[in-house]
Amino acid sequence: VKVLQDAECSVVYPMEQSCCGKPILGVGDRETGRKIAKKNIEAFEKYDVDYIISACPTCTETLHETYKKLFANDPEWSRRAEAFCKKVREFSSFVAEQYKRMGRLTPTSGGEKVTYHDSCHIKRALGISEEPRALLKAAKGVELVEMHNCDKCCGMAGSFGMKYQEVSIPMLEEKVKNIKDTGATTAVVACPACMMQIGGGLDKAETGIQTKHIADILAERIK
Questions:
Q1: pLDDT tens-digit profile of 96-126?
Q2: Backbone angles phi, psi at 189, to 5 degrees
Q3: Model's pTM, two decimal places?
């Protein structure tokens, strides 16, 4: 909210909203998924908003793409879902767009070394990779250092990381090594799930490296 306000946005938070529905849709319960979608659509219809911002790429994809597919046989809800979906934007790309319009995406130099992890959903599903980097390069007191295989999955992937630990843990260990090799003091992500996975891996390895969402990195630098 602090960053969005800094980007000259007025922010409202509909208290009636719910989970985006991705977890339940992921296990095939489309009936419950539609109920959740209707609840969210109704919650935001009460406000005359221009955009619906999510700081989670998985939520963004669900709200923007999946909702349109849930009501193919229901003309009224299909229309309402279409109007809702058109307003959904991912946080970092939206802020980068706003900052660029405001003339605030000029790269700076020097400062705390950070490295950025591309989550699977933000890069492969949404096609967003340059915008978060532009924000980090323009952030005061931050120096972006790229890690090896920056867009390789950290092993979380929702419930995958819990159900298939024999595959997930080696992927996490590789990600931790690649982060350590950069010499960065902070690993930056734009995905809450990756943040939990990578943060846990860095803590377990006793690296002393922090894990932060890009929103936190930006908010800390707003006076």
A1: 999 999 999 999 988 999 999 999 999 999 9
A2: -135, 165
A3: 0.94
